[in-house]
Amino acid sequence: MKQGSHVLSMESESEARIVSLALTGKLDKTDYEAFMPKIEEQIQQHGKIRLLVELIDFHGWKFSGLIEDTKFGFRHFNDIDRLAIVGDRKWEKGMATFCNPFTTASIRYFEHEELEDAKTWLHEDLDT
To answer: First and final CA of the chain: distance in angstroms?
Structure first.
């Protein structure tokens, strides 16, 4: 990712239709411009995808990032099958509940030490 980005890493498992993001700091519009094309490419290829979002020293969104996040939610309301949020703060856990109205995805929150559990959950029942 570009220097100064709040996207630490992004990986996709094409055969498993899983996209993993590691995010830090405060997200802005340029961060969404960096990772959205890859997510949309996976949606084009597979239809519904599964998303792992790991929050590392995450501080939320700048206004431009919040706008992009909202647009993403509306545009891809039905495109995410499962969303695993991995973090370590109480408010990050609350994001799992906050996201519910913006997606049809099954959403679960995991603590950082449960990262492998999150990955296992995302891989469950991929053939169905």
So the answer is: 33
Flag whether 2 is in a domain. Answer: no
Cα–Cα distance measured from residue 53 to residue 24, given in angstroms and rounded to the nearest whole number: 11
27-59 pLDDT tens trace: 999 998 988 898 999 999 888 999 999 999 888
pLDDT tens-digit map of 66-99: 888 888 888 887 898 998 999 887 655 555 555 5
Beta bridge partners of 68: none
Angle CA 65–92–34, to nearest 5? 30
Residue 115 is assigned to a structural domain of this protein: yes
- In angstroms, the CA 121 to CA 116 distance is 9
In this prediction the pTM is 0.82
Indicate the number of domains in the chain.
Answer: 1
Phi, psi (rounded to 5 degrees) for 47: 75, -115
For residues 30 and 101, what is the distance between their CA atoms, to the nearest angstrom?
Answer: 25
